[in-house]
Amino acid sequence: MPPDGPAESTVTKAVKRKPRTQTGKARSTAKAASRQTVSIAFTGSGGAGVMTAGQMLLDAAAKAGWYGQMTRSSGPQIRGGEAAAFVRLSSEPVIAPNNVFDIMVAFDWMNIDRFVDEIPLDERSLILSDPEAGEMPAALAKQPAAKADLALATVAKEVPGGRPNMVALGAVSTLIGLSEEKVVAPITKALERKGVDAIRASMAAVKAGRKAVKGARTDYRLPVSIGTDRKERWNISGNEAIGLGALRAGMRFVAAYPITPATEILEWLAPNLEKLDGSMVQAEDELASINMIIGASFGGIPSLTATSGPGLALMMESIGLAVAAEVPIVVVNVQRGGPSTGIPVKSEQSDLNIALYGLHGDAPHIVTAATSITDCFFTAQWSVHLAEALQCPVILMSDQQLGQSRTVADRPKAQPHVAKRLTALPGTEDYNRYALTESGVSPMATPGTPGTTYVADGLEHTERGRPSSQSKDHLAQLDKRARKLETFAFGDHWAEIDGEGETVVLTWGSSTGPALEAAKMVRAQGGKVKVVSLRLLMPAQTDRLEAEVKDAKRILVVEQSHSRQFYRYLRAFYDLPFEPEVFAQPGPLPIRPLQVQTLLTDGQKRS
Q1: Are 285 and 257 in contact (CB under 8 A)?
Q2: What is the dihedral of CA 150, 152, 157, 159, to 10 degrees?
């Protein structure tokens, strides 16, 4: 192929077009939200290197001082099949997926129809595809985006050891204004174990990809960041952040059974726990996992397990045991589409009901929820602290959108929350494990502490711990367990509150990012919006939330579930001043800022 071969001329022609223009209100608002941001989708079959290209692009952008986020998407298969990496880069912190993708690079058309709904495109977008992959599927051909050939396979073959995904990385990095120098470090780091030859081949393929789009003039370029705090930024996934937060709090034992999309928590913790003299056990199933951490915590070690919806369902009886025996544990639930096996690799917020109400009997427990990828770090640290302080189970809610996405973000502030359990002293006279204290929290003895022997099981019991079926003992212990949560001072961490206004958005979890960005878009047009994202779902902070909405003239509930679980939770626990509006969109499609912004703007017009 000549130096200025077909790939270069085709791509250059496609991207040499007039600067973007906005038509209509939707385009105007999208422009406000998309200022200094660009979104790229890499798609292809399993093994094509889609995720590698996306990860390297994110890492290179971080080196250049940009913020960013990468979300993974794949089909239901265990291995192979189709995959997609969605990358959004910006000169400002990225908290949500963009409304449209600017560039889509298709390595092949393997089951691409499964991703079409997840890749919104418009007339400003560009689709790059390899002509060797065959004819573009109709679902994409009818999109208003510009189309261009990029001969990934052909260009890669001209480079000894070259791979199409590295050609794509080179082409995209050029189109968005990312220098070749910034791409070197991520490639070197990722391929270090494969040796110098692999690094050289990949860099040569990147150069070839850059050459293929040489001369293209686009408006996809981000400005050069001159921030001085780049070294203080984190490049981390939500699952990794949960592991780090739990370790910072003092958690030292994990037992779990791998399950998508929570497995990366375990993969990250395995080597890092060992560095801190902690231990991890891969159990034979979720039933064993939950009982192992109850046993370890009973022995005095702050403990955690991580799972997803099907695993959480199996753990419910034993979580009830931890409530009755007042054993502190943390159960991380990284939600996925349900019910049953559902959609393992896609995100949804439909496990809320089981987390809140899944235990039989009156079983007071704590339910927390991370509000962003970086907040997974804080919420995990806080959750371990709460479990230990209140001697009860904490179910920490995340989801695939948070857990398996990576972000380049500012380093969170250090937090003081650590595991601190009230323990019994040796030789305590007349030791009553379940003493009816004012706070509801009673000293917990570590096995082997002289003079503090007691029985701990799932039976109702006396203050001493002896099994009892008498009504007075049952009522006393019910009150004790409830009192722990009702009287504890949770502080200002119960919710993330942003802005002021008579329009209030109530949300939680991964729906927080789109709500916050939508509110920012509305404010840019002169509107006033308050966003309240609940981090503490149980026990309900009734007075606090009601104070935040008492002056509201409009309330919009935003969540990712089909049955409006979060809305029904709000109606069950809070006295809202009037009937709220509800935007409940089930997975697997993510909620996008423009969807929420449109609802907010339309509502303001009606009012």
Answers
A1: yes
A2: 90
What is the average pLDDT score of the chain? Answer: 91
Q: Is residue 527 a part of any domain in this protein?
A: yes
Q: Are 430 and 460 found together in one domain?
A: yes
- DSSP letter string, 132-178: GG-SPPHHHHTSSSEEEE--HHHHHHTSTT--HHHHHHHHHHHHTT-
Please tell me the distance from the alpha carbon of residue 408 to that of residue 66, in angstroms, as a whole number: 8
Confidence of residue 603 (pLDDT cuts 50, 70, 90): low
With bands split at pLDDT 50, 70 and 90, how would you rate the model's confidence at 602? confident
Q: Are 484 and 507 members of one domain?
A: no
CB atoms within 10 A of CB 199: 18
- Does the reported pTM lie above 0.85? yes
Residues 220 and 250 occupy one common structural domain: no
Spatial distance between the Cα atoms of 232 and 409, rounded to a whole number of angstroms: 9
Closest residue by Cα to residue 286 from 320, 253, 309, 252 = 309
Range of the domain at 262: 234-410
Where does the pLDDT of residue 214 fall: very low under 50, low under 70, confident under 90, or very high at 90 and above?
Answer: confident
- Same-domain status, 74 and 176: yes
Same domain, 378 and 438: no
Query: In the predicted model, is pLDDT for residue 18 greater than 90?
Result: no
Tell me whether the omega of the peptide bond preceding residue 539 falls within 30 degrees of 0, making it cis. Answer: yes
Label the pairing between strands 67-74 and 303-307. unpaired
Cβ neighbours of residue 290 closer than 8 Å, sequence gap 6 or more: 255, 305, 314, 315, 318, 319, 329, 331
Asked if residue 273 has pLDDT above 90, the reply is yes
Q: Are residues 148 and 246 in the same domain?
A: no
Sheet of strand 103-106, all strands in order from the earlier edge strand to the far edge: 146-149, 126-129, 103-106, 37-45, 82-90, 67-74, 406-410, 233-237
